[in-house]
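ok new one. same drill as before - structure tokens go in, u give me an amino acid for every spot. 73 of them this time. try not to just spam alanines like last time pls lmao
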């Protein structure tokens, strides 16, 4: 099975750059949110619709990033 409807975009969550990747495998949508700078995966989700998969990934990423402390520059 090959992925279809692949999309990748950058979004900002609470001042953090996040890369959101979404694609369809069969009848399920997969979404992954990762921190752009180190590229660490924050969330991976599977849902019945693109919107639902992206919303779940962004919600999980927001929860993790809100707990991350930033050093002043």
């Amino acid at each position: 099975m090959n992925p279809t409807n692949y999309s990748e975009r950058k979004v900002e969550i609470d001042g953090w750059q996040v890369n959101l990747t979404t694609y369809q495998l069969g009848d399920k949508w997969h979404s992954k949110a990762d921190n752009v700078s180190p590229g660490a995966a924050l969330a991976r989700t599977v849902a019945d619709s693109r919107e639902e998969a992206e919303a779940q990934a962004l919600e999980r990423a927001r929860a993790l990033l809100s707990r991350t402390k930033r050093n002043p520059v």
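Helices lie at 50-66. and btw The beta strands are 4-13, 16-25, 28-35, 41-47.
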